[in-house]
Design a protein that fits this description.
The chain has about 400 residues and is of the alpha/beta class. The chain has one domain: Rossmann fold (3-Layer(aba) Sandwich), CATH 3.40.50. About 35% of the residues lie in helices and about 15% in strands. It contains 14 helices and 13 strands. The strands form three sheets. It has a six-stranded mixed beta sheet, with helices on both faces. It has a four-stranded parallel beta sheet with strand order 8-7-6-9, sandwiched between helices. Strand 6, helix 4 and strand 7 form a beta-alpha-beta unit. The radius of gyration is 19 Å and the shape is globular. The relative contact order is 0.14. About 0% of the residues have low confidence.
Length: about 400
Amino acid sequence: MFLKHLECSACGLQHEWSHLQNVCLSCHKPLLAIVDLAAASRMLTRETLATREKSLWRYREVLPLPDDVEPVSLGEGGTPLLRASGSCRTDDIDLWIKDESLNPTQSFKARGMSVAVSMAKYLGATKLAAPSAGNAGGALAAYAARAGLEAHIFMPRDTPRANIIECRELGAQVTLIDGLITNCGAEIARRKAKEGWFDMSTLKEPYRVEGKKTLGYELAEQCAWQLPDVILYPTGGGTGLIGMWKAFDEMETLGWIGKKRPRMFAVQATGCAPIVRAFEAGEKIAAEFPDARTVATGLRVPKAIGDFLILNILCQSNGGAIAVTDEEMIRSAREVGSTQGLFVCPEGGACFAALKLLFHAGKIAPGEHVVIFNTGSGIKYLECYEHRGVSPDGLLG
């Protein structure tokens, strides 16, 4: 293992990795894992990857976990990058779809939880807790079960039924809360010390982002080490966006890619768009979004702890942030289903809707290489696709 230490993403304070850590002990911002890339590069090269298993653990040298420790794995990673066809290829855009629905538990959350649960178990955690509006809860329940650990998941009462049942059937203790994911997180914070839980919330431990950064490594490998011009990413907590950006920097240090970066676009729902509002106002942090509402439960995050990191990435990459209505995302998801054969989640549908808006606004040009991330399967959101009526504010009713 080539993990050196943990470093605060805001103040830079270093922390030891060898015991359980949540956020920075000084400023309470997210911690990031710092890898000795020079040492890792002596064992991991682009050429050696070709002989390795189709799993995110193929990048083992740049991931945490000692070499002699077996990861908690269900076969995550290695998802397809599919070229879009037909009507989805708007105005000759070279459009590709990274389909994360083929991960265990049918979403990209499996990547983060595989690495985070592996490290939590290794460092001595026995009880794991997380707030979730859906897919993160299912992933934590699955990987905790695989690891022989307790999982305590707090979910908004209106979380899609499929997610709640999934968590319970995987052995997790599920508590339903009146309110949003922020209310669920507050309940965990209030009880975790007394209950002996280790908090696995988004960016409140350092290793879910390490699992998510494999999105960036995998994408670069699948694109023959030439990154796309544009990435559209559905953004709630933003761990995947942050992880990919970290991966791009690491791969440049490894000598695998050059300095070119994709323009990163965060896609949100009009009913919960804190990052969009902050980006448009030129802010460095995002205020909590009031009365957050959207059928895309993964986007219903009114306040993200990593907001300053997300906004910085959008600015550095010359990208942006855009919101779409629930009606637009569901309509686009249906179009993707009927033309591409992919039953995408509403969050994925939001990115297809955003693509059209960005193209017509001149922010994406014909011929550009664009990658859209579908972060999960539509099968988890059957209630969304059964609804037909739309309220005046553009939200499905």
